[in-house]
Design goal:
single chain, 150 residues, alpha/beta, Rossmann fold, four-stranded parallel sheet, four-stranded mixed sheet, 5 helices, 27% strand, globular, binds iron/sulfur cluster
Length: 150
């Protein structure tokens, strides 16, 4: 069975920053021929509930910045992602939650250091690791749109 890495909140896991989920039954039905390998870097690294974070372009790199205290949160997320794909080296498909600073593939909001919105096509830090590894990667909404299910 082929494996798909899927944002855990889309499977119904209550791991969102606010302790809620983003259960997507349509997506789960569509992926029924896959073995789903759920992931949630933010729950693993920071627990749930937790303060939100945003992607900020500091000129050299896009970082995850805490909205609570401005701290840089990128390193543990990137480490989680690298460890995840090392452990699951046979993942063929990555589907991330849209607009998440960790999981978005091409739908993340990216700000400058003054918190002005630069664009809304950014890549979350875990999705970036998937793309860098050459794994086919989709935002969940784009995936469903491509199948004419949204
Ligand atoms: S980090 Fe990803 S998997 Fe976890 S709650 Fe946010 S969008 Fe969902």
């Amino acid at each position: 069975m082929k494996k798909v890495a899927l944002s855990a909140c889309l499977t119904g896991c209550t791991c969102r920053y606010d302790g809620k989920e983003n259960l997507n039954i349509t997506l789960l039905k569509e992926l029924s021929s896959y073995e789903i390998v759920p992931f949630c870097p933010e729950d693993f690294c920071f627990g749930t509930p937790r303060p939100t974070m945003d992607l900020v372009d500091n000129g050299d790199k896009i970082e995850a910045i805490s909205n609570k205290d401005g701290s840089v949160l990128s390193s543990p997320i990137e480490k989680y992602a690298k460890d995840f794909f090392k452990k699951n080296s046979d993942i063929k498909l990555f589907i991330g939650k849209d607009r998440s600073p960790s999981c978005a593939v091409r739908s993340g909001k990216v700000y400058d250091k003054e918190k002005n919105l630069l664009h809304t096509t950014g890549t979350g830090l875990m999705a970036k690791v998937a793309l860098d590894l050459g794994i086919e990667s989709w935002d969940s909404e784009d995936y469903l749109i491509s199948l004419k299910l949204l």
